[in-house]
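Give me the fold.
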Amino acid sequence: MNRSGQITLVLISVLFTTFQKVWDHHPFFSIDFFVFTLIAWVVGWQYDKARDFEKKARASEESYKKLIDSLPEPVYITREHKVLYANHAAASLVGAANKEEVIGKMILDYIVPEYKDRLMERFKQIKKEQSPVNTIEYKAKRIDGSTFFFEVSSLFIVYGGTEAVLSIGKDITERKEQTERLLQKSEKLALLGQMAAGIAHEIRNPLTSIKGFIQLFKANQQKEEYFDIVLAELDRINTIVGEFLVLAKPTAAVYVEKDVKILFQDVVTLIGTQSILNNVEILVDFAPDLPMISCEENQLKQVFLNLLKNAIEAMPHGGTIYVQVEEKEAGNISIKIIDEGVGIPKERLSTLGEPFYTTKEKGTGLGLMTCFKIIESHSGVLTIHSKVNDGTTIEIILPTMKQPLLKKELSYM
């Protein structure tokens, strides 16, 4: 330990006593001399000891920094959520040119809003436990606004003589994306198996009926209605296969500029006979000056036809279907189909659009799934609202020629 402070204070005491002896002729070795020299010795010793501790603390801090800088993983030290120090890897992770751009900033500036509460709770836990905590995942953002996923472990330390938190982690964005791809692949394989089982089940039923009637034909028990039933069952098989092919085969759709008003009027005309037979009235309200849309005409007609058909079948005792078409904000067009039918239970809404899941007695669920697929391919949104015994509202939002792209999304409410 350096004793320069101790020596300096003792020398001051000696010089002061010497001055008193020369000037006032006081004795040199007096009680005051011994008391002041002792005090100078003790104070100097404490001063040198404090300086030694300060030097060691600075050396320790520098060692921290050198160790942190040598690590390849992002490491940073914070106090009250403020970055005290960060290594080059941490600065590079958030897109900073150097670590000086990061030091002094609030760590919350680099966390997306929905993950900030998680970070605050984690820091409370670190302070409470005073020990290393398990890794936790955050969604962070870089200086340029791009986001990434970051997995981090934190430790309570003493840095610069006061409490701080040291965190070390790594970018796991690529790992999460790979996991997501594997999950999607797994889901697709599961869906394929589900669809294969569903098709086999749906086709087996009419085939069983056809087989039975053919056996009756062989026994010369032929009636006119038997032929009608066989033909109806064959049509049913054809419909199931046709719906499946629409989903399975890739189509090179040609998108052209169309007036949605004309498209919907054509569909209403096509389904008019069925609606009259079922005592259902279709009322269409078109807003004035509707913008044009870019679409594949036949595909969009298929969606409108399918949804109107579902609405009619949902009202076995008749009723009214209201269709509202208007332009929405941001250059999008909204098409609402509102029925007064039996409605759909809340717990079943999330499964709508899944293959072979349907509320109909002889349905396959492929029709609604086809609707979702077509609307998604048009960069549109299909939303279903329903309440039991109160009816169902289906809204389709499509981009107009003013707004060529709309985020693809399927939602149920």
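The radius of gyration is 39 Å.
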